[in-house]
Specification:
Lysozyme-like; 3 domains; 7 strands; about 10% strand; binds zinc ion
Amino acid sequence: MLTYRKPQHLFLLLLFAAILVASCSPKVTNPKPKQGSVKSPIVKGPHFTTDSIYTTKTDSLLNIARLQQPVMLFDSTGIIAVPSEWVGTVNFGMRKANYVIIHYTAQDSVQQTIKTFIMASTQVSAHYVVGKDGKVFHMVNDYLRSNHAGVGKWGSVTDMNSCSLGIEIDNNGFEPFTDMQIKSLLALLTQLKKTYNIPTANFIGHQDFAPRRKPDPGPMFPWKLLADHGFGYRSDMIVVPAPDNFDYKTALRLIGYDTSDLNAAIIAFKRHFVQDDSTVQLSPLDLNVLYNVYQKY
Ligand SMILES: [Zn+2]
């Protein structure tokens, strides 16, 4: 689900963003890569302007990664520098996402969402958008950080954008997901799980991560189907009843929920794992499901 400021003066903002990116480009101590060696060819399509900004921005990020200068540290006086030196290792690689966060767009069409994600003023994006017809739009390279999760907490993770891939599903929040988009979603998740070795437990919804702020992907999202394919956990069909002294708050926390707002955590859990109602009450069934699910973590 997207949260953004009302867009205004698109052209000026895009121009400003391009200038800002260019002006912030750090100096590098090694030669620039050969022209075309890291860039993908850009087709002059309907999104040529924003695709060009994407290229400029990725060039700027690459320049940051290429910096070869040591960390600058000072002792407790703040005056005396701690000795440091740059020695580049030859053993490194790209950081990979370890979570997938699933959203619904809460918008009226996939075109509206794409428009939202190519406007600098909105400041929001996702790696992928899945249309109702099953078409998958890839909008941010998997190795880059997109602005989809925002403020929240899951386990000890607070900066979810830095360690996750965001998938927005075209859905207004009050309608069923289409078979075509779920089919495409499963194909996408299969590839992401395999490519980045993402653990089964780490396929979660936006509301799981931000239960105080977000309702998506909502109780109509087919979490059971996903779990059947290895994306996220689900309660077993036959569950052992929770004991009388079951500490449900600790169980929610062990799964990953931020229990500082216990009611919000309970609602998020029920909308994901029970999908029966969205009240804060935990029925015997809810408790049994929670008891079963938390033991998988
Ligand atoms: Zn969302």
